[in-house]
């Protein structure tokens, strides 16, 4: 590692690299083309940042191109890399759809050494003759499995046609395997496979299943919103259901944000900023929009809709418990959903019933400091990973009582606020 990077890491108290960061350092620095696999939340962005940036030459034009499947992931990667590029006096430019293309073209004229973008915008600039990549030394595909499928793969093909240089290093990064024959055929080379998925790093992620009827899932979210210091990304399979739930939460005055493909770049950026700053309790999104997102110390993710396969579950779960911190994966559903989930993923899943205290950002940080790598102790309300078989009518009655009490408390609070307003109406305000 470059000595300037080592000095900065030492100053912030960083002492240990993750397995993927150690494994790819030498091959990347030596110019090898690699196919790197590691679990989500293990620091893959920094894994290719630290070895590659010191190899770039300042003021020598576009040398490193990083492609990401979404605007959000591209902007997130830009923020991370820019911090380290500044140490080496390197310029970074983000090229994403939805952003001001004139501003991007103006900055391209300064020939930044590092380009980070989405395939759609990069291929558009190449097709229009606005972006030349003849000086390129390295191409990175972040979340390569997502990039090398469907229409996006065609855009990658167009980008590579503009490069088409055997000397250009190509590195694939992700948590899910890419068909090596597809990658080898596209880029006309063999890749060194570096698979760190089975190398465990300390984690404290709990997987929970909350039996919930479909027509009660929105009310579940409303109840969870009352817990202090709790935030969660809520995953949906369809944009339609996401928008229906967003309308319900807005009507219930629950602070939330949505991240949907098709919204403007400004809208999506504002949603993420509000969630990162804690102004929104929930971030409602789909799998495509949230791929690769990094929200530090996120307490939980919620599967409003169960994912369609185990791979998707893994990517969703990777948004919480990142870099060994505590986190919780909550899935809503009925008995049939529970059986499907058990077949889908090979993790211990606790079935939760009754009132349950969820982790917050504060407890996630404390858990990491007190006992890194240890599983958080389940609450007394949790059960084994088998669904409860006791009287369902009794459970339903308890749930209904809980809902009524919660609703009544809310009404009482509103009445008190109205009485206070009427009492103070017309009185002068004091500073």
TrEMBL record:
Upper taxonomic lineage: Bacteria, Bacillati, Bacillota, Bacilli, Lactobacillales
GO terms (BP aspect): response to cold
Assigned keywords, A-Z: ATP-binding, Helicase, Hydrolase, Nucleotide-binding
Positions of region (Disordered): 370-431
Keyword Hydrolase included in the entry's annotation: yes
Residue ranges of domain Helicase C-terminal in the record: 216-366
Organism the protein comes from: Weissella paramesenteroides ATCC 33313
InterPro entries attached to this UniProt entry: DEAD/DEAH_box_helicase_dom, DEAD/DEAH_RhlB, DEAD_box_RNA_helicases, Helicase_ATP-bd, Helicase_C-like, P-loop_NTPase, RNA-helicase_DEAD-box_CS
UniProt protein name: DEAD/DEAH box helicase
Sequence similarity: Belongs to the DEAD box helicase family.
Signal peptide positions (record): none
GO cellular component: cytosol; ribosome
Biased composition (Basic residues): 416-431
An example Gene Ontology molecular-function term: ATP binding
Pfam families noted in UniProt: DEAD, Helicase_C
PROSITE patterns: DEAD_ATP_HELICASE, HELICASE_ATP_BIND_1, HELICASE_CTER
